[in-house]
Amino acid sequence: MRNTKRYPVKDTNSLWQVYKTVSFWKVLKNVIVILIGRYIPFFGLKNGLYRKLLKMEVGKHTAFAFMVMVDIMFPEKIKIGDNSIIGYNSTILAHEYLINEYRVGEVHIGSEVMIGANSTILPGITIGDNAVIAAGTVVHKNVEAGTFVGGNPMRVIYTKEEMDKRKQQHH
Prior knowledge:
Blueprint: E1 5-8, H1 18-21, H2 24-39, H3 43-54, E2 57-58, E3 63-64, E4 69-70, E5 78-80, E6 85-86, E7 91-92, E8 95-97, E9 101-104, E10 107-109, E11 114-115, E12 120-121, E13 126-127, E14 132-133, E15 138-139, E16 148-150, E17 155-158, H4 160-169
Parallel strand pairs: 2-5, 3-6, 4-7, 5-10, 6-11, 7-12, 10-13, 11-14, 12-15, 14-16
Antiparallel strand pairs: 1-9, 8-9, 16-17
Helix pairs in contact: 2-3
């Protein structure tokens, strides 16, 4: 289950009211930092920008591939462990704006997690250590540590036990 907090709105849809939710200047700064980060090929510099300017928790040796899109409204709600890879053109969301409400939730991505290209992580999600997310997956619910998931809708491809068994067979 996703862990998000709901905020009801009245009159117009929640996105129309976005600057009642978050400062225009914060969003502008975040957009500039994220656009630079999407193109910078230097992981250390990119992680430093995300840590200092977006207030994200980014672990040691974590790599954001080319064109990764992090949440522009609430990037400070994204926490990623050590030595993880966020694949090409993936998106990590910490908010969602709906017609009658908006929702905000922290995203926790563990250490040594592999997120395949073009994946989308929805708000309020926890992905455990050593999990593998197949390319193109929409992560709409929590992922247990060591599990391999994929698809849309996302499903478990291999449990942690099956992954451990496969690793032993290849060594």
